[in-house]
Amino acid sequence: MCASNVLIYAPVMAGASILCATDLTSAGPRVVDLAVAAAKAFGVRVDLVHVLDDSDSWWPESSEFEAATAAAKEDSTRQEADLEIELQKERARCVATGVECDAFVVRGRPWRVIPELAEERGAFLITVGPYGASGPRSFDSKGVTELVLGSTAQRVIRAADRPVFVATGDAPIPDGLQGTKWFVGTDFSESALAAVSWAKRAAARVGGELHIANVVIPAGGEEKPDEERTWRQVLRDQGKLEAGKKLAEYIEQYAPNAQAHQVVSPEYPSHAMCNAAKMVDADVMVVGTHRQGVLGRLLVGSTASRCIRIAPVPVLMVPEQAP
Q1: What integer is the mean pLDDT of 254-260?
Q2: How far, in Å, CA of 177 to CA of 207, rounded?
Q3: What is the pTM of this model?
Q4: What pLDDT, in 10s, does the model give residues 109-155?
Q5: Hey, which residues does 45 pair with through a beta bridge?
Q6: With CB atoms 3.0 to 4.6 Å apart as the test, which of 124, 140, 248, 269 could cross-link to 10 if both were Cys?
Q7: What is the dihedral of CA 90, 117, 11, 261, to 10 degrees?
Q8: Contacts 24+ apart (CB under 8 A), 215-222
Q9: 264-284, pLDDT tens digit by residue?
């Protein structure tokens, strides 16, 4: 059984949960809404957590700073109590939807603590926001506006050994994800297969649709006879035909009920996939991630990273190797 199969069946196991990490900023409610929708879809509880970053909580022990240290500790304790109050408000909102929910504030480095808590709490899925307290920022890339992904989200995706649901986009999240359209881009790699396998079972569970797309570069010179085209144009045209055949065979083997989309575009694959997702009015994008380079866990493929920055809907990042 592949890793993605194990993960999708995890929700029916006793004690499974979704770990929802919220920073309690303006982006927080959407993260919680996504976690609640997923919890309803899979019949699990939500573990709602806020991580109070303690990276600057070291204070000198010298007697001359005793008063200042005491004041700083008191302020930190008061801040934690205030955060606990706000978090309990979010918990009450979860419970009001009929979803079982635990909530707690913990101290530590968020990007390190969140994956550890997911392991400890038996969470098969993590939900995070795309940006933090500084709010959304963006830049233009080839005419496309890309979101500047928050450092915590980036690091959690890199460190987590289980799927991470990023609450990108701004469209309302369907209740319980019922009847939703799941859009997966594939390059026929093992990481893409993990994403397809996960999305297939998720779509089936919520009575939704599965769409699978493969991006190819336009050949060019289609209006000319073959003898007048460049060798590159001829090869790309042949590659397009072979890729279309491979996509059909791929879907027949791994997801017979999925709808196939061959996307012909000169853009980045991530841009092309997001545009295709918009065309089919997708509710969720699913992207397979793989580790690159000698640092292994520290790097994620550029297509996966860019998808999160421009996706119009929530993006589920599925690691190629997951427990």
Answers
A1: 96
A2: 9
A3: 0.83
A4: 888 899 999 999 999 999 998 875 444 444 455 555 544 456 788 88
A5: 17
A6: 124
A7: 90
A8: 215/185, 215/187, 215/263, 215/264, 215/265, 215/269, 215/272, 215/273, 216/240, 216/243, 216/262, 216/263, 216/264, 216/265, 217/264, 217/265, 217/266, 218/264, 218/265, 218/266
A9: 998 888 889 999 999 999 999
Q: What are phi and psi of 204, to 5 degrees?
A: -65, -35
Instruction: Please report how many Cα atoms fall inside a 13 Å half-sphere around the Cα of residue 91, on the Cβ side.
Output: 18
Determine the residue type at 59. W
Q: What is the 3 state secondary structure string of 157-181?
A: HHHCCCCEEECCCCCCCCHHHCCCE
According to DSSP, residue 227 is labeled: G
Distance CA 190, CA 140 (A): 31
CB atoms within 10 A of CB 100: 13
33-59: average pLDDT: 88
Domains by residue range for the chain, with CATH: 3-319 (3.40.50.12370)
Alpha carbon distance 105, 113 (integer Å): 11
- Amino acid identity, residue 209? E
Q: Are strands 315-319 and 164-166 parallel, antiparallel or unpaired?
A: antiparallel
Inter-residue contact 183 to 192 (CB < 8 Å): no
Overall average pLDDT of the 286-305 stretch: 62
CA 142, 148, 151, 157 torsion-angle sign? negative
Neighbours of 13 (CB within 10 A): 10
3-state secondary structure (DSSP) of residue 89: helix
Name the amino acid, one letter, at 8.
I
H helices, E strands: number in the chain: 9, 12
Contacts of 314 (CB under 8 A, 6+ apart): 34, 165, 166, 167, 168, 169, 173, 283, 284, 285
Tokens coding 54: 């303690």
Do β-strands 138-141 and 144-147 pair in parallel, antiparallel, or remain unpaired?
A: antiparallel
